[in-house]
Design goal:
Shape: globular
Strand content: 35-45%
Order of helices and strands: EEEEEEEEEEEEEE
Helix content: under 10%
Largest sheet: 5 strands, antiparallel
Number of strands: 14
Radius of gyration: 16 Å
Number of helices: 0
Distance between the termini: 27 Å
Structural class: mainly beta
Length: about 170
């Protein structure tokens, strides 16, 4: 988004403590040298008094949306369940729910993800359940936001998926 840097990881504030409430994700204005917290104040791991939630991967689409994958259950203010994969709109400064229904996200950490030209999102990580369903979602799954549908990927993998890449031909 031009002069905006979005950083994700395992942090809650800037090093000098000038900006707090980052909770795994922060936005830095490269022009004005200023950190800001997201509306809704980042992500929440749901465990009171424990280590902060973790963001493992970020991606920006052409519409001002930041997709976020990691280990968390909701927005920090607990208003939207995002279950380890969420979407934040920089233009409206708001979290956007990707799916409908309870327990509909990914149960376990999302390490990486990539989207194809049709809008489907391929997620990899250390999870065994997606979309509220057990099945062959073992550490890799496909989510189609247009139909709120999850797809298995040939039975999954026997270990954590750390990276996903889709070429320009959607392969």
């Amino acid at each position: 988004t031009g002069n905006t840097l979005v950083a994700g990881g395992k942090f809650t504030k800037t090093q000098d403590s000038a900006i707090t409430g980052l909770n795994g994700i922060g936005v830095y204005d490269l022009t004005n040298n200023l950190w800001t917290a997201l509306s809704g104040s980042g992500v929440n791991n749901g465990l009171t008094g424990s280590a902060p939630a973790i963001i493992n991967d970020l991606a920006l689409d052409g519409k001002g949306n930041v997709f976020v994958g990691g280990s968390f259950i909701s927005t920090y203010d607990d208003t939207i369940d995002i279950w380890n994969f969420g979407k934040y709109n920089l233009s409206t400064s708001s979290w956007v729910s990707l799916w409908t229904g309870s327990n509909s996200g990914v149960w376990g950490s999302v390490q990486a993800f990539a989207g194809d030209s049709s809008g489907k999102i391929y997620l990899g990580g250390d999870f065994m359940r997606a979309g509220g369903n057990y099945g062959n979602y073992k550490r890799i799954a496909i989510f189609d936001p247009s139909g709120n549908t999850w797809f298995e990927v040939a039975g999954g993998t026997n270990g954590k998926v750390n990276a996903i890449l889709i070429d320009s031909s959607d392969n």
